[in-house]
Amino acid sequence: MTPELEKYDQRGASASKKEVHHAIRNLDKGLYPNAFCKILPDVAGGNADFCNIMHADTAGTKTSLAYLYWKETGDISIWRGIAQDALVMNLDDMACCGCLDDILISNTIARNKHLIPGEVIEEIIEGTIAFVEAMGERGISIKHAGGETADTGDIVRTIDVGITAFGRMPRKDLIVNQIKPGAVIIGLASDGKAKYEAEYNSGIGSNGLTSARHDMLHHSYAAKYPESFSPETDIRYVYNGPWHLTDKVKVGNEEINIGKLLLSPTRTFLPILMPLIREYRSEIQGIIHCTGGAYSKVLKFISPNLAVHIDNVPPTPVLFDLIRQASNTSLAEMYKVFNMGIRMMLFVDKKSAPAILDLASAFGVQASILGEVKRSDEAAKVIINTGDEQEPVVEYK
Predict the structure, then answer these.
(1) Residue 98 in 3-state DSSP?
(2) Is residue 242 part of a domain?
(3) DSSP one-letter code for 35
(4) What CATH number is associated with residue 188?
(5) Strand partners of residue 384
């Protein structure tokens, strides 16, 4: 095991989730196994022309980071971003299948009541409501069906925040990944400030936060907040970084503290994807949400004779450079753990690419052509020309 993988394993984290994928290998893959989410028959309506999608996800260990920030600064509003993290990890996955509207959500919050008061729960609920209302103003209907808050201090050290989402849609409107040679790859940036966002977004999303938190933050947090990490973790791998949460770094013309950068709410692409899919559905061969597995995730959705060539990597956002410097992690691992500034990939016909780029840019989100799909005589693979002198090429199979 390499030193990098050893760190992740010791911290109880995994980018590939091999054990999980092995455990669920016998589960039914749904109506369309190559769809980004599991597609089910229309159990809710009994109409053969419709289908159902049910999805569940959490904000992951980002909640532990929010706990640290709240305790250190007293800023309880930081928990609203955690609500958005849990929501977007569901909704943007479902959007990859073309399901963007008339969605039901339910939240599940498990907390240690000794450490997490009702005020924190209220902020999370209010953050959920605010997100739903903001999407409603953009014509995206999301209905909150309530949820469950459980006091599970014997199990949960601080708090876990999850969302379950349900959608029903016509099968004819589904996007099922059918990626072909010649497809152009368009990447939607996770960083910057979209027109529908209130402040700069570092692009971190909700993946890789266990590594980012421990590699970035100062070891003094280990003694001060032992409840923020698993007691089974070797202390050598706990909070090894140079930064304190309130240390500021220059981002463009702003100075933003490290805590805020790490806790940037996961950007949703729903406002962009709704008009984009409505207009260009027939031109879209596939959409990949680069969450767990990041750039390597596309391997799950392409056939064995294809190679995804990424030759135009956009500039790496500031935070990912800071994480790499603090952790001394290879680019091969960075592109597998973090989205590195691209959290949504669209595989489209070449002729529609310019119009799609223009549409995304109209929302203040940087969009770029990353490369294209080519035939391969080998197994499916992703090849990234990084532009880095020490690691010019990163490849996943």
Answers:
(1) coil
(2) no
(3) S
(4) 3.30.1330.10
(5) 310, 394
For residue 353, give the 3-state DSSP assignment: helix
Residue 208 one-letter amino acid: G
3-class DSSP state for residue 286?
A: strand
pLDDT at 362: 96
List alpha helices for the chain, DSSP H. 3-10, 18-23, 62-73, 78-95, 118-136, 209-216, 220-224, 258-262, 270-280, 318-327, 331-337, 353-361
Look up residue 255 and give its two tokens: 């100075």
Domain count, the chain: 1
CA distances (Å), origin 232, targets 12, 73, 211, 350: 9, 27, 16, 51
The verdict on residue 252 lying in a domain is no
Tell me how far CA of residue 89 lies from CA of 58, 165, 268, 306, 353, in angstroms: 7, 10, 9, 27, 26
Q: How far is residue 52 CA from its own chain's centroid?
A: 22
Tell me the residue type at 328: N
Ranges in the chain, pLDDT < 70: 1-9, 12-18, 20-21, 24, 26
205 domain-assigned: no
Would you say the pTM of this structure is higher than 0.85? yes
Q: How far apart are CA 328 and CA 277, in angstroms?
A: 39
The span from the CA of 328 to the CA of 350, in Å, is 38
Closest CA to 380 of 296, 311, 310: 296
pLDDT in tens, 91-118: 999 999 999 999 999 999 999 999 999 9
Domain extent for 307: 3-199+264-396
- For the stretch 225-237, pLDDT in tens is 999 999 999 999 9
- CB-based burial of residue 23 (10 Å sphere; 0-12 exposed, 13-18 middle, 19+ buried)? exposed
* Residue 257 domain flag: no
Q: How far apart are CA 316 and CA 391, in angstroms?
A: 14
Look at residues 382, 303, 307, 296 and name the one whose alpha carbon lies nearest to residue 15: 296
Contact status, residue 79 vs residue 269, Cβ threshold 8 Å = no
Cα–Cα distance, 192 to 267 (Å, whole number): 10
